[in-house]
Design a protein that fits this description.
single chain, mainly alpha, about 90% helix, globular
Amino acid sequence: MLEFSKQILEKVSFDQNLFTKELNKLIIWLNDEEEIRKLRDWCLKVFGNRYSSVITKTFQKRLES
């Protein structure tokens, strides 16, 4: 599931709105906290230079709940 999530985000990374929408869906779809943390770390590493605020905000909402 994690690898599939990465593929989706790579394909939609050209558009911030689409990236945000898909990231939200993937976080809901992944139900394992460890996978969610791995996805967050990967997102920050790969897309942090473009979408760091979106990534941080999105994962913060999920990990706090």
